[in-house]
Amino acid sequence: MSDIKIICDSLSDVPDDMLEKYDIEMVPLTLILGGVEYRDRYDISCDELYRQLRQKDVYAKTSQVTYATFLEVFKKYIDQGREVLYIAGSAAATGTYQSANMAKEDLDGKVVTFDTDSLSFGAGMQVQLAGKLAQEGKSIEEIVPELKKLQEKIYIVFSVDTLDHLQKGGRISSTKAAIGNILNIKPLLEVRDGLVAQLCQVRGKKHVIAKYIEILDENVGMELEGSDVYIGYSDDIKERDQVAEAIREKFNPAEIVFVPLGSCIVAHAGPGVTGVFVHKRY
Q1: Are 127 and 14 in contact (CB under 8 A)?
Q2: Maximum CA extent, the chain
Q3: What is the pLDDT of residues 216-274, one digit of tens each?
């Protein structure tokens, strides 16, 4: 067992097998659905969330991890004599990181917090690296600079199937959502400076795949050849597989890994969201 305990939050969408492999604890944000609160990844499955969000006029909200939760989790490992490295989903997108920093100030023991400046598996890639380095015996002082290097090389693009959930979350106006749905607009978005930003849009789902390839080619290009590519998906398995096949044909990556998108991402983007996460090598 490493002397360092890696902790992340559920914004990072780290798969369960990876959490187990690297002895990582995930603290859940709160998902609010139909007036009922659930601990993300603990009290409600992603499949159940997708199913409910497919129903008419059903929307979800999320709430940050609390100070009290972090205080309890951090103290548990400090009392074991371990150092804690908490790797957070984007501080620009949630107050969770601030809650963690408040908690660490009230504890005696080593707790280091790190803002990934990313969301979903963009943060998860950094959590994965931290877990690997901790198992190799690296110190927190050695791990953090490597996370900063990786952070600068992560590129994320994703598409949403409907504009309704972005509108309910305040990302776009109700007028823009209504017009977009009528015209069958499918926006493609990226994570920029820790926040979701619209990159472009296409008309009709059949044009989404070609646009994915165009965007990846412009931003990452042939660096993808021989690299790993992560595809985040919700309940649109057909689109997931089509994106994977198009990427294989164009870029010949070493491996394509499918990552289920968690409740926090789907709550704001809606069911049918698909994302591509890549690591620039240069």
Answers
A1: yes
A2: 58
A3: 999 888 788 888 999 999 888 999 999 999 999 999 999 999 999 988 888 877 788 89
List, in sequence order, every residue forming a beta bridge with 197; answer none if it has no partner.
190
Q: pTM for this one?
A: 0.91
Please give the DSSP secondary-structure letter assigned to residue 107.
S
For residue 160, give the amino acid letter.
Answer: V
Q: Which domains can be identified in the chain, with CATH numbers?
A: 4-29+64-151 (3.40.50.10440), 154-279 (3.30.1180.10)
- Closest residue by Cα to residue 103 from 139, 66, 134, 131: 66
- List CB contacts of 212: < 8 A, sequence separation 6 or more: 157, 159, 188, 243, 246, 247, 276
Q: How far apart are CA 59 and CA 26, in angstroms?
A: 24
What tokens appear for 126 in the block? 């950094």
Q: What is the distance between the alpha carbons of residues 148 and 270, in angstroms, rounded to a whole number?
A: 30
The position carrying tokens 């290009």 is: 221
